[in-house]
Every structure is written in C-alpha cells, then in structure tokens.
Amino acid sequence: MEAVRYVAIGDSFTEGVGDEMPDGHVRGWADLVAQGWAASGTRVEYANLAIRGRLIRPIVEEQLPAALALKPTHLSFNGGGNDMLRPKADADVIAGHLDTVLEACDAHGIKLILLSGANPSARLPLGKLFQRRGDLLCDLVEQRIAHRDDVIRAYNWPDTTLMDPRFWSEDRLHMNARGHHRVAARVLDSLGVDVPEGWWDLDFEATLGKNGLAYYREFVGPWIHRRLTGRSSGDGRAAKFPAWTPIGD
C-alpha cells in the first residue's frame, strides 16, 4: 500500500497548543489525525511545521516551501487567527494568501486539506468584533474555493458545539484535548476515514479557569505586552516534527 505523506502547516491551532501532555509537549488535532489515519490501516508518514504565534504571511512564505520540499501527498493549511487579533486586520488580504497555497498544491499534485479554526469569540474580550471578522474571513475563503470540489474542507468556525467552554483551555483562546479531538474527528470524517469512538465529544473534564482581573492578569496582560514589545509566543521555537515521522496504529 502506498503511504500517505501528510504535512501540517499553521500556527498554535495546528501545533496543538492547549492539548498538553504530561511530559510537557503538545499534541493537538493534527497529531491525532495522523494517528487516526494510521489506525484505519493506512501507512502514514507525518510532519508538522506549525509554530505558535505565526501570522499568515510567515506561514505561507516560510512553512509552505519547507512543506513542499518534503514532497507530501497531503497538506493541511490553516492560518490567519493571529492576524485577526490585530487592530488593522484585513480579512481580504489574509484570505488572499490561500491563492498561493492552492497554486503550490496544484503544481505539485498535493491534496489540500483546508481548515477554519474553532470560534473562541463567545468568551473573549471584544468577542463580537472577532466574531464578525471570523465570519467574514470564512466567507472570503469559501468564495475562493467554491468551484474546487477537490479541496478537502474541515470547517470548525461554524461548529457552535465547539464554542462550549468545555472544549477550551483556561486562556479561552486555545482548545483543550476535548476540542482538539473534535477537530481531528472532523478532518478524518472529511477524508472519509472512520472516526475513533468518542472523538466527537471526548469524555474529558475541563478546567474552566480564572475570571475577572485574574484572567486578564494571567492571559490578556502578557499577550498585550508581547504586542507592545514586538515579540511572539513562538519566538525561538522550531517545528515539532520537521521531518517525516512514521505513525503506528
């Protein structure tokens, strides 16, 4: 059987932030997709080039060429979440980067798996603003691929179940293990792969975290400080799986 060579590019959503393992490393939906795919009997080789904090432009300009160099059969792409948090976010410019990804996948015969992120706006400061921006970005992206039946879609933004606090980590911006399993289930389902039992709604006891000033002090304050100082949560970090890793079932 010919192996699937699956590479993931993106930001913290694809890196897996929020789904931390006991040893400190992050797992996340893309790792779970590789595992679930292998469990179906497919030979899977997996790479993950995503790095937290990345804006859409560095994802496309830096991670995409590195992904193409691996000669994958499948590539998953998500980005723009960090851009949408910036004051001068331009949804049309963000969506425009998809054209580069589409052209590259077409040129190299790669099957594109396109994801929208889960919607955190219900519990975020300025949540209504981010809701509007996310809705607009999703519409602009779908307009670009409306004629492309060959693109595999795994849209999580419209999933209102995913907005439940039980799917989110304490920072309210990243999903927890339950959320990452639900996203992985959607990707596998979009690929036509059987979803492991329980992944749509994992039995997982989430910690809802802090409220009020304690929440702002622990999560919002450090985020604002990084913006003011021009730093990113991904500074100094490298991709967790930069080369092909065989996945057992």
UniProtKB/TrEMBL annotation:
Residues 8-181 form the SGNH hydrolase-type esterase domain. Coiled coil: none annotated. This is Lipase. It comes from Nocardioides luteus.
